[in-house]
Amino acid sequence: MKLFFGIVFTAVILGYALHLLLQAIKQKKIVPLAIFLGILGMYTLSFYNELAFYICWSIFLIPQILFVVYVFIFMIVSITRKKTNTLSDKKIRDEELKFVSIVVAVHNEENVVEDTIHNLLQLDYPKDHYDITFIDDFSKDNTLELLLKYKDQIQVIDRSQNASSTQLKGKPAAINENIDRLKGELICILDADSVIEKGFLQRIVPKFKNPNLGIVQARNIFYNKDKNIVTRLTALDIYSMQHTIYIPVSKLGFGMFEGRAGVFRKKIFKDIQGFDPALPGEDFDFAYRVGLSGYDVHYEDTVFSKEQVTETISEWYKQRKRWLANHVLSCFKNLKGLYKTENLTLSRKIAALFFMLNLAYAFSFNFLGPLMLINEFRYESVLPYVFIISFSLTVVFFCCSYILRTGKLWLLPLIPIMIIYYWTFTVIQTWVLINEKLINIKLSYKKAYHRKPLSNEV
Predict the structure, then answer these.
(1) 213-222 vs 155-158, strand pairing mode
(2) What is the C-alpha separation between 135 and 160, in angstroms, rounded?
(3) pTM to 2 decimals?
(4) Cα–Cα distance for residue pair 46/7, rounded to 1 Å
(5) Using alpha carbons only, what angle is made at residue 177 by residues 174 and 181, rounded to the nearest 5 degrees?
(6) Which parts of the chain sit beneath pLDDT 50?
(7) CATH fold of 94-356, please?
(8) What is the pLDDT of residues 322-350, one digit of tens each?
C-alpha cells in the first residue's frame, strides 16, 4: 500500500514539476525554475540525508495531523448537537417584519428560471414586504424572453442594455452593479435553479432581531441526488460538509455563505464593498469578510432550498475547480485580515483558522508521495502509515458526521470511494495554488450546467 500511494502521489508531483519547468522555459522567468529546482533539491537532500528526510516529513505531515484533529472535534460537535428547530413556525409578528429583496442573477438558464419564478411568487410572506429581481447576465438563449413574460410580477434587469466594453460579467458584478436598485433591508440571494420552501423567509427573517447578525445561510438539498454515482458522491460530499463544517463553525460564530439560499443585511454588503468580482466565486470571501468585520454568520439547517447537483464528471470537474479555486484565492486574500482584525473572539479565530489549515492540508498532501518512495527504498519509518491512516480517518470522520447524525448507515460503503474523491480535491487545489499564486497564471473557470428538472423533482 505504501508503494502504491507513493507512486501515485509522486506521479502528481512530477506533473506539477514538469509544468513548472515548461512555464520557466515558456515565460523565460526565474520563479517557476526556482520552484522546480527547490522541489528537486528538497527530495534529493531527503534521499541522501536522514535528518533532512525527517524534517521534510514533519513539514508536510503536521498539517495532516492538525486537520484530522480538527475534523474529529467538528464531527463530535456535529453528531452530539441536537437537531432542534431554532426557528418558529408561528406566523411572523409585525414588529419582526423586514422588507426582503430576493435577487437571482442568471446566465443561460432557460431550463430552470420559470420553475424558480413560480416558486418565489408563492412564498408565505407578506406580499408588501418582499420583491423579486432577476438580473439577466448577457444570456444567449431564451432566458431573457422567459423572464419578460413575468415583468408585471418581478423586476427584470437586462445587463446587456447600455453595456460597456469594460463591464464585468458574472453574478458578483451583476449584483454589485444593481444593489441600489434592490429596496430590501435584507437581501436574499438564490441560484437560478433554487426552489425554496414556502416559509423560507417567514422562518429566517426573525433571526435578524439580533443586530449583530450579518448572514443566515439555509441548508441546500438536492432533488436529483439519486440519479447516478456522480450525484450520490457529490451529494454525500456536500451534506457531509454541511454537517462537519457548517454546523460547528456556525456554533463558533463564524459560519459559511454558499452564494445561494442565503440572507444578509444590505447595509453590511455595502459597508464591505460587496462581492469581489475578481474571484471565481463570491460566497466564501464575502462570508469571511463579514465575519472579520465582527458580525455573526449563522448556518440554519432546519430551513432548506432544493437545487440540482452536477450529474456528469465533466460538470462536476468544472464546478469543483471553480469552488476550490475560490477557496484557495479567498484564503490568501483574507490571511492578513485574519491576523490584523480585532473583531474576532478566540472561538471565531479557531473557526477561521480551520479554512487556512484546510489549504495547507491540501497543498502538502501530494508532496508526501516522493518521501514515501524514499522511505520505501532508503529508510525504514512508520511515517507513511501515519499519513495513510490520518488521511483515511479524515475522510471517515468527515462523512460520518452526516451519516451518523442522520442515521443513513447504508451510505457507509461509499466511504472508500470518497477517499479517492477527496484526493482529487487536493490535486485540483494544489494545481490552482501553483498556477494562480506561485507562477501568476490565471486559470479559466466555468459554471455548471442546469438541465430542465422533471415535473416530479421540484
Answers:
(1) unpaired
(2) 10
(3) 0.90
(4) 17
(5) 105
(6) none
(7) Spore Coat Polysaccharide Biosynthesis Protein SpsA; Chain A (3.90.550)
(8) 999 999 999 889 888 777 777 778 878 87
